[in-house]
Amino acid sequence: MTAPQQLVQKLWNYCNILRDDGLSYGDYVEQLTFLLFLKMAEEQAQLHKKPSSVPKGYDWPSLLAKDGEELEAHYRHVLDTLGKKPGMLGLIFRKAQNKIQDPAKLRRLIVDLIDKEQWTSLSADVKGDAYEGLLQKNAEDVKGGAGQYFTPRALISAMVEVIAPQPGESICDPACGTGGFLLAAHDFLAKHNELDRAQKKKLKAGTFYGIELVDSVTRLCAMNLLLHGIGGESEEDLPVTTKDALAGKHGEYEVVLANPPFGKKSSVTIVNEAGESSKESLIINRDDFWASTSNKQLNFLQHIFTILKQHGRAAVVLPDNVLFEGGAGETIRRELLKQADVHTLLRLPTGIFYAQGVKANVLFFDRKPAQEKPWTQKLWIYDLRTNQHFTLKENTLQRSDLDDFVACYFGRDAAPSASGKSKTAGSASQPYLRNRHERKETEQFKAFGYDELAKRDKANLDIFWLKDDALEESANLPAPEVIAADIAADLAAALEQFNTIAEDLK
């Protein structure tokens, strides 16, 4: 096993002990986050011979000095106190709670597991990859719902590669989860460029911006980024913020990469004086939006457009309904086609997300200055769904499954080389464009002009042309377990839609 795998295994083995006490995978990773931060803060202070960022009496030595019920009580006090501090401390510990009720097991976790490792001596790759491994294991705990925050890393890698972030660009994920897109962008920038000292400093603080709604997920993201060398101690250096991204504009960025939540339409329960309850949709009204709707995905699509700088570019994972939903959906699609260059759509296969029945796509578009003529000329659609069968365990999506898409995206001859250095066949100032204007149609990759798109009923972008082999000949049918999984996924998706309708009708 590699060093990160060994570390993951070591940390994960202890989780099994704590699960006997009712601790979930998510709870365990969260407690590790608190303890790892305190241990690393102490190591950093000793290494640089400076005071720790953690106040004395609430630091790692204070935990080592206690045992039994005294340790458990002190640990709770530490979490509560640090959660009220500004900067990185407040970000990591906000609303933190101790979930390890057995003092003996807490002591063992602190002394035998965390304290025996010199975390600062480990490379950022080892620490970061180990933590990322824990987050992935957590995501695999489907019953715990952690998977909603996890986008397949193979897909993230391909999205980042074609977006090709450049040194000095600001990169945002307004629904960042545990930070997968931001980390992949960081790795891409470090791998594909010879960065000078100033650029490396900016990569640590001032390049990445994550927004997350849930406190517990924000801390996982912050720790994930920190272990990969991203983020600092000051308020200005914080790479991730806890807030509702849809509440308003929170800056402008050159690059946006995101997989917004696929949840139900936003609603709130209203109880009147007679005790009768009713549901009201939380329709978001913003002056900078094209349409008012309670659909989260449509709102995120509008929001992402608003936070893009002129000529900024976005890659967004969106469910199928965003492509064909009427009303506000039609208005938003038509405006997006006019005001942005909506140049690429990747139809994703089923079976790659932890939420069952999800049919999703990646939409790529560039924001453009205002003009009367629509900016979208051609929408190129790549179909990775028809005749494709993936599962979360037996047949997982690999990065190689997206090689053909990446090649098609760049006009086949201009993708980054295997050595890691980008070929910049396009404009030197816009290397991410490369040979995109020289794209060629293939069986899986087709272009549709603006006039054709605009004439479609409700500007429906849910376009497919490949024949399902299984419908042509029974010999081409996939394995029975694959068929069963597909049926289950379709039923789950249908049930989700019916539940949404039922909720709206209440």
Q: In CATH terms, what is the fold-level topology of the largest domain?
A: Rossmann fold
**What is the residue-averaged pLDDT?**
83
Main beta-sheet annotation: 9 strands, mixed
**Topology as a string of helices (H) and strands (E):** HHHHHHHHEHHEHEEEEHEHHEEEHEHHH
Structural class: alpha/beta
What's the β-strand tally? 11
Question: How many angstroms does the end-to-end distance come to?
Answer: 54 Å
Radius of gyration: 24 Å
Strand line-up of the largest beta sheet? 3-2-1-4-7-9-8-10-11
What's the CATH architecture of the largest domain?
3-Layer(aba) Sandwich
Helix content: 40-55%
Number of helices in the DSSP assignment: 18
Low-pLDDT segments, ≥5 res: 142-147, 267-280, 414-429
CATH class of the largest domain: Alpha Beta
Q: What would the principal axes of the Cα set say about the shape?
A: globular
Q: What quaternary form is this?
A: single chain
Question: Secondary structure elements and their pairing?
Answer:
Elements (H helix, E strand, L loop, with lengths): L2 H17 L5 H24 L11 H5 L3 H15 L4 H7 L9 H12 L9 H16 L13 H11 L7 E3 L6 H13 L4 H8 L3 E5 L2 H13 L12 E3 L10 E6 L8 E5 L5 E5 L14 H12 E12 L1 H4 L3 H12 E8 L12 E8 L10 E6 L19 H7 L35 E5 H6 L13 H4 L7 H26 L1
Parallel strand pairs: 1-2, 1-4, 2-3, 4-7, 8-10
Antiparallel strand pairs: 5-6, 7-9, 8-9, 10-11
Describe the structure concisely for a colleague:
The chain is built from 18 helices and eleven strands.
